[in-house]
Amino acid sequence: MLYKRIVIIISILFLLLVCLSTAYSLQTYQSQLPVVEVKYIASDAICPSEAIYEDPNGGYYLLVVNEQEGPWGKEYILKQVFVNIASKGSFVVLLGPPPVEPVVLSSNLPIDADSIVNVSYLDN
Amino acid sequence: MDELEFLERYSIDESDSGAFLKLSLIPDNFTLQRYIRLFTQSPIYLRLFWNSVILVVPILLGQCLISPLSAYAFEFMLWKYKEILYYVFVVVMLLPLQILLVPHFIVADWLGINGTYWAIILPGIFNPFGVFILRQQLRGFPKECIDAGKMDGANEWVGFRSIVLPNMKPAIAALCILTFVEYWNIVDQAIIFTKSYFQQPLSVYLSRIVETDPGMFFAVSSFYMVPAILIFAYGHEHLAQGITLSGVRN
Q1: Disruptive mutation site among A7, A13, A16, A24 for chain B (greatest number of B CBs within 10 Å)
Q2: Is 0.95 exceeded by the ipTM?
Q3: Using alpha carbons only, what angle is made at residue B132 by residues B74 and B122, rounded to the nearest 5 degrees?
Q4: Model confidence over B233-244: pLDDT tens digits?
């Protein structure tokens, strides 16, 4: 009888540990993600120069935000979209159709393609 | 995998390097870093763990409800073709899982539950193994007890609930342990019947990270086997009793 009680107590403690760690890890995971500021540029094909990244192998690309299924619901992942540009100043004119997804303008932490991020939308 | 390779893999410690260190079963540099990462920074492992729980608990509950009733009906109720149907049950039970996956998939498609947990849960609930093990248990049960109950005014349900069911507890406990272990370690069905990566149970994910992140694999494996150990620790007496079919005898 004592043996079974010990097993039950260990089981409850284990369940409690898993519940608490799930809640905690979910919270820390969300709070540790980089926060990026994004903007839709599809309407005018002009974007700020800070949104343009130069590829080491040549060319320019934007980081756009895609929605995907994450472990606990929707999450945002960054993807590279290569673009041709007409001129480079404080604003850049894109040649060809601009991406329909929101484009990353800035981030509070270093980001790269395939980074999972939290998104903050800028007013257009 | 030969024995040497197995021992090498088994001797990986859970340090940051995650590389093959040396041929020893006990690592020199023991660290709990992977466990801390598991419990505090890896929501994916915990999500997949809960997926396993979501899969296993309904199957266990369903088996505990359906199998005793079916076993009772097969053993004590009189109806045509019951032995033929029971024979079909046993044949289905003996078929390998890989053969059953195709009909399961087709039926799940008919029912429109493909890509959901129900495609795994429903075949799990109606698994003939539970009926088989419980009917074997009931074979030695004295029918006179049920007849005596009926003479005192008990109907079929009361006879089942008050006379037969209490004597089936060891076999039901054994069935729960065996079913839990079977569906806790599920891989094939989970890969086929779930569409999203995050729907899959942790057992599927474990089989994927063994090569890429061996340190984490060992930590998550240790964590993942705790429920199975606890269930076994709680019901191991019933398991032995239920499997040897010695719960009830004249």
Answers
A1: A7
A2: no
A3: 95
A4: 988 887 877 777
